[in-house]
Amino acid sequence: DQQVKQNSPSLSVQEGRISILNCDYTNSMFDYFLWYKKYPAEGPTFLISISSIKDKNEDGRFTVFLNKSAKHLSLHIVPSQPGDSAVYFCAAGENSGGGADGLTFGKGTHLIIQP
Amino acid sequence: DAGVTQSPTHLIKTRGQQVTLRCSPKSGHDTVSWYQQALGQGPQFIFQYYEEEERQRGNFPDRFSGHQFPNYSSELNVNALLLGDSALYLCASSLGTGDSGNTIYFGEGSWLTVV
After folding, report:
1. Given A44, A49, A93, which is nearest B106 (Cβ)?
2. What is the percentage of chain B residues whose pLDDT exceeds 90?
3. Spatial CB neighbours of B43, under 8 Å, sequence gap ≥ 6
4. Which of A85, B33, B71, B100 gets the most CB atoms within 10 Å of its CB?
5. pLDDT tens digits for B95-112?
6. Residues of A with CB under 8 A from a CB of B
7. How far is B49 from chain A, CA to nearest CA, in Å?
8. Which SS3 state, helix, strand or coil, does residue A61 take?
9. Cβ-based neighbour number of residue B39 at 10 Å
10. What is the DSSP letter of A115?
11. What is the largest CA-CA distance in chain A?
């Protein structure tokens, strides 16, 4: 039973346009959500996070939107750049008593930015 | 400021053997979590160590064990290796208290191949 789902294995976007990556979840107990970017043969790099009590968080070209009623979040990248080509993972976690619990990850979306 | 460091970066083991992977958390972090990432999948949570004890565990057999040292560094041990244990093993560090959902950082990973 996948609690975090990324239904698009890949996404191709033209350079300069907006990239929108989607993520759905089933566990209403998640306290926060994170997006990671991963290049081949490297560990995931933290991009941006959002608390479950917020509906939007913005950091430069990256914005994450959270729709709790739909159990859906999305990552917007504007404008898309060639260096953004990578696999993007959506992850979710809970705070239980103290500190972050283990994260639950989606399977990832491979974003390809075309010149 | 040192990030999360892992060793070794690559290793090959034979079925039935045992392996030890090592991780040093990011400076200022006291909690270490381990993840297994198989090809084409998202990382899966193995367990988390805080104050030298296993605080949380994912759905992995007892062949997977760990340890955390007083300096917060950690080891992941896998006994009786199976071919299916071939994967990228990721270490993540975070703070053990408070809302640390936005401060979870990963190392580059250790690639384990079981033959």
Report:
1. A44
2. 78
3. A44, A89, A103, A105, B35, B36, B37, B90
4. B33
5. 876 555 557 889 999 999
6. 4, 6, 31-32, 34, 36, 41-46, 49, 51, 89, 91, 93, 95-96, 98-108
7. 10
8. coil
9. 7
10. -
11. 47
Which tokens in the block code for residue B75? Answer: 């080891």
Do the Cβ atoms of A71 and A82 come closer than 8 Å? no
Which segments in chain A show pLDDT lower than 50? Answer: none
Q: Determine whether the interchain pair B47/A107 forms a contact, defined as Cβ–Cβ distance below 8 Å.
A: no
**Phi and psi, residue B83, nearest 5°:** -55, -35
Residue-level pLDDT at A94 = 85
Cβ distance A49 to B102 less than 8 Å, yes or no, reads yes
CB-CB contact of A102 with A2 (8 Å): no
Q: Provide the pLDDT for residue A87.
A: 97
How far off is chain A from B67, nearest CA to CA, in Å?
Answer: 16
> B31: burial class by Cβ within 10 Å (0-12, 13-18, 19+)?
buried
